[in-house]
Structure formats: C-alpha cells, structure tokens
Amino acid sequence: MIIPAKSSGNALSRTCPAIAIHQVSHFFGSNPVLNHVNLTVPKGTILALLGPSGCGKSTLLKMLAGLLNPASGEIRFDGEIVASGSFSLPPEKRNLGMAFQDYALWPHMSVRQNVAFPLQMRGIKGQAQAEKVMAALERVGLADFVSRRPSELSGGQQQRVALARAIVAEPRILLFDEPLSNLDRDLRESLCEEMAVLLRQLGTTAVYVTHDQHEARALAHRIARMDKGAIARIDTIDPSAVSPFVA
C-alpha cells in the first residue's frame, strides 16, 4: 500500500505554468512526428498524454526530459527556456523525476542503492540521503525491502522502486512513460489508483504518457489527446466524478 506523503506546506507560485510548450515541431528524417504543438501545464497538475502508438506522445515526453531536442519551437519550465531549436538544457539540470515501463533499475544494486542514485547525483550523502531514501520507500510501501535486488522483486514491486527513485529528490516535474504497461491488468489497476493518491498528495506537476484512456482518467487532472503529432483536444477531469477503469 502506498502511504501518502506529508504536505510540505510550501505554496507554489502561480505566476507562470510549470510547463509551457510553444510551437514545437520535430521530424524523424523527413517524416513529421510533432506538428506545432502548443500546451501548458499549470503547477501541481497531473497531465496525461493519451493516444495510439506513433501519435508523438513519447517523443514529446522525451523532449521534456531532455533526451530529444525539438526541430523548432521552445519548451519552458517555470518560465525558463529548457529547449528550443538551438538550445537544450541537459537532463540532469532540469530537476526531473522519471519512471519508465521497463523500470530501468540497476540489477547489481539493492533497492536502497537504486533509490539513492538521484540523491548521489545531487551530492546528497550520509544521514540526509538515508532519511530521504527511507521516506520515499515508506511512501510506496517498500520500507522492508531496502536490501533486496531487483531480481528478488515482483514486477509491481520493481515499479514501486522506480516510483520511489523518481520522487526521492523532490523534483519539480515528474515524467512517466507508460510505467504500468508491463503489469497484468489487476495489478495495473491497483497500482494506478495508489499512484493517483500519491501524486495528488505530493502536489508535484506530472506528465503521464499512456495509450489507456481508463488509466488516464484514473490518474490525471487533464488529458491531452494526441493524434498525428498534434494535440487534438484537452479534457479536464473531475476526480470526484471518476470511476477508475470503468468504460
């Protein structure tokens, strides 16, 4: 069971959106993948990028992560340009947390070491690191698994480790690339609902890529539906009216 995080009590500034994407285009060879995408994500919002394979949602997420650079247009975080046609801020300087469908855990490291890695990259060591790691693992219900290796965990437990690693450094933005797609349906539904609770408790801006509309509705405040490299429409979800995974 995921344990909700304690509120930090810090009021977020509302002077500019957490993410602003303006006229972003991209090509693979001569094939357009993103076509003048415009999108804003207010601070604290969970946005789902929803669409079929090949619609451009994962490409857009990789641009937010700094793994791809747009051919044109610009991306801003909190008003700061992080990517344009001629500039890209390195991923490690964007203050992001990321979780992927393949978990991306280091098999030779323990759960504790995997979760601690983002803190090491930021120079956080010793007792401060240990406390943050345990707090993150407690939030995802894995405090008793700190010494295990990924191979000793189930798929759901591995994804919880990946989630703990994504949140441990308290990033300004969380990015998810279909993180539940490798799980069976029952486990996917259960973990999705728990993630929704955790993300709302954290209050962190998040972008969640999925092709599953029920998963999107269970998690997100807003759903940006993508088609042929463009935003086709944006729906606002009322969490109180959502019945997760009901068609």
UniProtKB/TrEMBL annotation:
Domain of life of the native organism: Bacteria
Domain ABC transporter: 19-246
GO MF annotations in UniProt: ABC-type ferric iron transporter activity; ATP binding; ATP hydrolysis activity
Keywords assigned by UniProt, alphabetized: ATP-binding, Cell membrane, Ion transport, Iron, Iron transport, Membrane, Nucleotide-binding, Transport
Protein's GO biological process: quaternary ammonium group transport
GO cellular component, one term: membrane
Matching PANTHER family: SPERMIDINE/PUTRESCINE IMPORT ATP-BINDING PROTEIN POTA, SPERMIDINE_PUTRESCINE IMPORT ATP-BINDING PROTEIN POTA
Designated name of the protein: ABC transporter substrate-binding protein
Taxonomic lineage of the native organism: Bacteria, Pseudomonadati, Pseudomonadota, Gammaproteobacteria, Enterobacterales
